[in-house]
Amino acid sequence: MRKLTVVLAAFVMIAASCKKDSNNPDAEPPGKPGVEAPPEAERDALPGKVVMTNETGQSTTFSITYLPDSKKIDRITTQNGAEIYHYTGDLIEKIDYNTDGSNYTKFEYQNNDLIRETHYRSSQPAGKNEYTYPSSNKMQVVEFKYKNNKWEQAEDPVNLEFDNKGNLMKAENGRLKVDLSYDDKNAPFLNVTGWSKIRLTGGIPFGENLVFEDVLARRNNPNKTTATDNGTPLLNITFTNEFNDNQHPKFPTKITGKENAGTKFTVVISYATQSGEPGDDEENRLPLELTMTSDTGADETTTITYQTNSKKIDQIKNSKNGSTQTYQYDGDRIVKIDFGSNGGGDNYKLFEYDATTKRPTSVTQYRSGKAESQLRYTYTSNTVLTLADYKYENDAWTAAGELINLELDANGNVIKVTSGDTEVSISYDAKKSPFFNVTGWAEIEFLAGIPLGNNMGAEDVIGRKNNPTRTLAKQDGTTLLDMAFTYEFNNDHHPNFPTKITGTDRPFTVTIVYN
User: Fold this and answer.
1) Could you report the per-residue pLDDT of 92-114, keeping only the tens digit for each?
2) Which of 18, 29, 32, 506 could pair with 87 in a Cys bridge, judged by C-beta atoms 3.0 to 4.6 Å apart?
């Protein structure tokens, strides 16, 4: 059965980064079709977090952050990555969909009217939409695909019609017709600069892989959306909107869409304000990218992705050596790290845990499918443990090196390490380390925050629970390392998580991007 989705899906995008600003950060550029501005008292509400649950019960959380003192989106992030908005003035010019800049969408305007959006995949053109305006409240959209080094029209034009407030009322593509009706309250993204220029078909939740842009409209909130194919019903969605935010009483906090008595989706929205009020809970903060510049002067970027709708790591990739680590879990415990892009390789680590305490008892390193080394954990108490290093030689495990004795504070931070004639002491602040919320991380990273050795990486300078402020290492009374750490906390949406770490003695900086 034909669906209007083929064309309408091209309108749907997410992203995040605004690098250019204008003198008036609140201005919405004029153009067609215009969107009615809310009353002055209602112009500060900005969505900070959107949680969308589909009809199968699967939820996705979208966190939205903004440029300082503006209503321009900086980025929209999920647990699988960040999407970045770029602005020219008050118009969204580009959306990047990953950190390497190869997948993106560009927007072109004429007299503040959107005339073209072009989608690039692997830096190559893939598709585009061309926009024309028969009148101030009507728009025609033509979709093209890029094939054999030329543009080919993909579908019949889509005709859109808007009311005098900027709400999409009708969409038509040959036999396919869509009609929408609205309430008189404010749409969640009404105040976001540039949003209504590129998000034209919200309120038409076609297809199975819905995202929140399919549901949220431009000016008001849909009450009902119907679609027919030559008179045969395709879609009949009834929206129920709840308003439970006393600070923003005319902005919905929950939207439920039902069809044939079944719930098709729910969208829960929490709001920030232009003043920088956090729009989401810090318990969901996850690091996505760490860029480290060390005393060698070389930049090293670590990218972390997560398993769907969880805080469990899927993969960690390193730009310096091109390595990929793939994580496997048993419940909330990391049981394997595979040093290959797809898992199942010959180089990996296996972790074992005590069945009662759930604490790690050993980690075994395998090379070319053969056991090579093992670290065994012995616990004297909840805050004191010993690590013993073993090598696998001549078909047997043999003790190797000195025992490593660890002492932890009440928060789980390692505050003292002794091994032979070497002693390390570490002090901490009261803020949260970048990996604080990552499932299973603290259980296996006991030596985090101790940047010894030649190949210092970002994981060596990041604490288990809190952030190191000083690491002092001595061998037989002689100082090996005396590193002081300083931190910057420059994101109002997660003020207790550092965005930049600087270290002395062996100078380095680490910048962190979160979801």
Assistant:
1) 999 998 767 789 999 999 999 99
2) 18
- With helix as H, strand as E and coil as C, how does 295-307 read? CCCCEEEEEEEEC
Structure tokens at 330: 């048993």
The answer to whether 460 and 446 have CB atoms below 8 angstroms apart is no
What CA–CA distance (Å, rounded) separates 99 from 289? 9
Instruction: Tell the burial category of 122 from Cβ atoms under 10 Å away from its Cβ (0-12, 13-18, 19+).
Output: exposed
> Could you give the C-alpha distances from 6 to 67, 158, 227, in angstroms and in order?
33, 10, 14
Residues spanned by CATH 2.40.160.150 within the chain? 5-31+38-273, 282-514
Rounded to whole angstroms, the Cα distance separating 106 from 111 reads 17
When the candidates are 1.10.540.10, 2.40.160.150, 3.50.50.60, 1.10.10.10, the CATH number that belongs to 282-514 is 2.40.160.150
> What's the length of the chain?
515
Q: How many other CB atoms are there within 10 angstroms of residue 410's CB atom?
A: 9
3-state secondary structure at position 460:
helix
Q: What is the pLDDT of residues 450-469, one digit of tens each?
A: 776 666 777 788 888 999 99
Whole-number Å distance between alpha carbons of 55 and 258 = 9
Nearest C-alpha neighbor of 493 from the set 23, 75, 20:
75
Distance, CA of 227 to CA of 1 (rounded, Å): 13
Query: Could you tell me which residues come within 8 angstroms of residue 88 by beta carbon, excluding any fewer than 6 positions away?
Result: 20
Distance CA 461, CA 455 (A): 12
Rounded Cα–Cα distance for residues 408 and 447 (Å): 11
- What class, spelled out in words, does domain 5-31+38-273 have in CATH? mainly beta
pLDDT of residue 79: 72
Are the CB atoms for 316 and 303 separated by under 8 Å? yes
Confidence of residue 493 (pLDDT cuts 50, 70, 90): low
* Residue the block writes with tokens 């004297």: 380
Helices (H), 125-245: 195-198
Tokens of 348: 């990996």
Asked if 59 contacts 265 with a C-beta cutoff of 8 angstroms, the reply is: no
